[in-house]
Specification:
This protein has eight helices and 14 strands. With 261 residues, it is α/β, with parallel strands linked by helices. The chain has one domain (2-250): Metallo-beta-lactamase, Chain A (4-Layer Sandwich), CATH 3.60.15.10. A hairpin with a 2-residue loop joins β7 and β8. The longest helix is centred in the last third of the chain and has 11 residues, at 211-221. The structure holds zinc ion (3 copies).
Length: 261
C-alpha cells in the first residue's frame, strides 16, 4: 500500500512572497518560489490527515479540495502552524463529527488557553454540539497512536529551546520546525524512505535547520528522498535546486510524493 504526501504550504512563518519585500525571490513569478505557511496533507486510501493548520489553511483547503479530514496532527503551537484552527469549523460542520486533534500535552495546554472559546462554546444550551465553532476532539500524542487503522508515531524534536513533534506514517516522516533531532528520536526514523525536513535557508538560524544542517541530518537518516520545507525568501528554486545533493528536493506548494505504508 502507498500513501501520498502533498505540501499544502512549504514556507516559513511570514510566507513567500513576504509582505513589504521586493527582493528577487519575493518578486519571482516561478510558482516554485511561492510558499504558504507550512502544512501537509497525508492521504492513505480514503484516510486524510492534516499536519498543522496555519493561517493559510482556508486557502490551502480550497486550493487542494480538502473537504474532509480524519485527524489533525499539530507539530507545535507557533502561530504559523496553528492559527487556521478556527477554519476547521467548515470541516466539522460538513462532517457533523468531532475531529481528532493530536498534539503534545504541552502544546495542547497552549491551544486550550489560546482558543478558549472552542472549549467554552462547544455545546449549545440543550447539550448538542454547536457546529458554528470547530468541534475538536483533543488527544495527547505521547506515543504511537492509530487513526483509521493507520499507525502514527510522534517524533520529539528540538526547536531552539522549545520542543516540537514530528510525525511518522509508514515510510514518511515529517520533521518540521526543528533545530536538532534528539538522539532518542533517531531510532524512530530508521527505514524512513521519504523525509520531510525543516530547512529555513542556507545560513544558520537559532531555531531552524539551515539547508546544510538538514543535509547533515539526511546523511545520518539515509532516506531514499528528502524534501526540504519551511523555506524563506533566501532560497530561489531555479538557482538553488541544482545545488542540492542527489535525492534532496526543495519543496513548493502543491508538490507531492508517494511513500510506502
Ligand atoms: Zn514554523
Ligand atoms: Zn523577499
Ligand atoms: Zn515554530
Amino acid at each position: 500500500m502507498t500513501g501520498r504526501f502533498t505540501f499544502l504550504g512549504s514556507g516559513t512563518s511570514r510566507g513567500v512572497p513576504m509582505m513589504c519585500c521586493d527582493c528577487e525571490v519575493c518578486r519571482s513569478t516561478d510558482p516554485r518560489d511561492h510558499h504558504e505557511r507550512s502544512s501537509g496533507l497525508v492521504e492513505v486510501g480514503p484516510t486524510k490527515l492534516l499536519i498543522d493548520c496555519g493561517p493559510d489553511l482556508r486557502h490551502q483547503c480550497l486550493n487542494f479540495h480538502v473537504t474532509r479530514l480524519d485527524a489533525v496532527l499539530l507539530t507545535h503551537a507557533h502561530i504559523d502552524h496553528v492559527d487556521g484552527l478556527d477554519d476547521l469549523q467548515a470541516i466539522t460542520q460538513f462532517s457533523r463529527t468531532a475531529l481528532p486533534f493530536y498534539a503534545s500535552p504541552a502544546t495542547l495546554a497552549i491551544v486550550h488557553e489560546r482558543y478558549r472559546y472552542v472549549d467554552e462554546l462547544k455545546y449549545q444550551a440543550d447539550g448538542t454540539p454547536r457546529w458554528s465553532i470547530p468541534q475538536l476532539d483533543y488527544r495527547e500524542a505521547t506515543g504511537p497512536f492509530s487513526v483509521a487503522g493507520l499507525k502514527v508515531t510522534p517524533l520529539p524534536l528540538k526547536h531552539g529551546r522549545a520542543t516540537t513533534l514530528g510525525y511518522r506514517i509508514g515510510g514518511m516522516a515529517y520533521v518540521c520546525d526543528c533545530s536538532a533531532i534528539p538522539e532518542e528520536t533517531y531510532p524512530l526514523l530508521e527505514g524512513v524512505t521519504d523525509l520531510v525536513i525543516d530547512a529555513l535557508r542556507w545560513r544558520r538560524h537559532p531555531t531552524h535547520f539551515s539547508i546544510f544542517e538538514a543535509e547533515e541530518a539526511v546523511r545520518r537518516i539515509c532516506p531514499q528522498r528528502a524534501w526540504f520545507t519551511h523555506l524563506c525568501h533566501d532560497v530561489l528554486y531555479a538557482r538553488d535546486q541544482p545545488l542540492m545533493q542527489p535525492g534532496n528536493t526543495l519543496a513548493y506548494d502543491g508538490l507531492n510524493f508517494d511513500f510506502p505504508i
